[in-house]
Amino acid sequence: MTPTQPSSPEPSSPQPAASAPDLAAIWSRARRLHPIYAELAREFVIDIPGCADLEAQADTPGRESVEQAQHWLNQMDEKIQVHQLRQFLQTSSMVDSDGLVALLQHFLAKTPRSDSARDKIDFLMVQYFSQGAPTDLDDNSADLAYVAQGLEPVLAKVELKSPVWLNALDRVLESARHCRSLDELLHGGVLEQGRKAKAQAGDLFYLPIALVAFTRFGYLMRRAFFRLMLADLNCILDGLTELEEKGVETIDCRRAQFSAQEPIIRLRMICQSWKVMFQAEYSSGQPLRMLVDLRASVEGALGHGSPAKDAAAKSAAVATASAAPRAAAAAAGAQAAKPAEARQTPPKTPVAKKAAPEMAAKPKAKSAAANADVAEFDVSAAPQEWNPDADSQPGKKK
Fold first, then answer.
1. Domain-embedded: residue 378
2. What is the Cα–Cα distance from 392 to 397, expressed in whole angstroms?
3. pLDDT tens digit sequence for 53-77
4. 375-391 burial string, b = 16+ CB within 10 Å, else e?
5. Is residue 69 part of a domain?
6. Looking at the whole model, is its pTM more than 0.85?
């Protein structure tokens, strides 16, 4: 008998029994995930009845108890959105590296594979790698081999033979490196190209080498994103200083959802609070569009604005507001996105949250829930088409 031509069993032969699930392993993982999911349910008011055996932390449950625990986790998975998982992991100290591994093993083992589970895996991979990466890691040093080594506790040893279609990710990264502002990154179609690459990968996304490549891509994209946010904040603060030196006390910031005569001293306080938040945590619900529009308002007050650019930005905002939100998507990033120059053991949310009321007091703030309806980093205009070379596209997911 050859490996390519297995013989068929005789009609009277019994079919081989399917391998029995490892109940002990399933139960151990469920017990590890239970406190995380229970806290997620509490924080986001997810109304699902608890699992009595998990709450009792039984040591040797029967098959029925294990199946009920698995059912409870699956119910929670359907309710928990990606942006909620991001926000929770940035504001909670209860999930360590082992907890991230347990979450990844849980989602990687799930069938059938959904877009929501894929997006959670994508985020968790970057989160796990980033937490273990050194603070002085250079972008050029974060190659496939380095990232694969960091992911070995999750993926084991990965063969570093990258298929041609993954080259599209490097092209997107190169485009991101050429962006000079957050506005250019958000509205230039770069982020949409990355999302399309992930969506069009289909089941190929789950290949170990693809998981490594997408983790590297997410890590480097978020670092670029974070650097541009900090650069925009510094540009706004410098502009406010220049306006104050000219004797200007208020500027028109209506496009950024502030008032027509917004005091410069208050804008400075808000930008400083944003800077604390951005350095400490890369959480959902951050006012990314407000940041972009505030920079445009300051540049306009300095006489640097362009009417054509303002009109284009306004058109982009309208297009985005009317676009249908993608399922299971999330607002901006994760603590995993912290760049080497800003990543440190962050002050947890008490620092950032104390500054937040000042930030949100004046504008007609978009809620975190509203921001969560758009894809990660997606506060841009209508999507651009992703057009990699024809021979580098994987089959689309059906």
1. no
2. 15
3. 898 887 878 888 888 999 999 999 9
4. bbbbbbbebeebebeee
5. no
6. no
